[in-house]
Amino acid sequence: MSLNGGHSPRLDPRATPTTAPGLHVVNHRCAGSTGAGTCASKLGQPDLGFASLNDMREHAEMIANLDPSVPLIADADAGYGGPNMVARTIQTKRCGHLSGKELVSTEVLVQKITAAAQERERLQSDILIIARTDALQTHNFDETILRLKAAIKAGADIAFLEGINSKEQCKAVREALAPTPVLLNMVEHSATPSLTPNEAQELGFRIIIFPFAAIAPAYEAIRQTYQNIKTTGRTGLASDFTPKKLFTVVGLGEAAKVDAQAGGAMYSMI
């Protein structure tokens, strides 16, 4: 995954198993799997550390396989253990906008980043390592920057400071960590001020992610549909939203092509 193509920041509207196909339909250049989205959509739980490595791997694998040409930012929480588990995670948490964090020491953070970087080198992988810290809740800004600098020195390619609370802080973190690219987490109506991709670019960010871009609208639409059924007896779906349209979005055409090229006629009447 290169950060050098084009001038606009990479946009990552975070996907869930249900919403990921829609992301590809509108041709976003980057995708992401989120711990919050996995907890909510896969487990029916809040983002309080319920998702395991296997949960996150399955979720990320599903999204990545929809279109392998689109880079995927995969949430790996805190690595699911010590250096050996971090290495295993490369082979294959509590939400950042909730309060009550307990942070590992900078030494432990460095050990985990080092383990990830070493495993990447062993595998000769082109994976990029994003070092995230939620330290702003419990430490001052300068201490937080020192944690990220230590992670970068240990092998992280991109810095991710969670819970930035002002445009001034946005600018400060970019300047403090330059030339390392910094990721901006755009959780609307939360700690970080709402910025558009263009505004984020003006502040120097190279990547911006929208963790609620898929799950929040999906929840609202599903809730409204169930309410429609309860009150009117109908879903209220648009008349052109047929089963075939849905299946086309999730790969009906490609499946029919594979079948036809193999000499089959299973989908010829669809």
TrEMBL record:
Region (Disordered): 1-22
GO MF terms held by the record: methylisocitrate lyase activity
Catalytic activity entry: (2S,3R)-3-hydroxybutane-1,2,3-tricarboxylate = pyruvate + succinate
InterPro entries, per the entry: ICL/PEPM, Isocitrate_lyase_ph_CS, Pyrv/PenolPyrv_kinase-like_dom, Pyrv_kinase-like_dom_sf
Transmembrane segments: none
Pfam families: PEP_mutase
Designated name of the protein: Methylisocitrate lyase
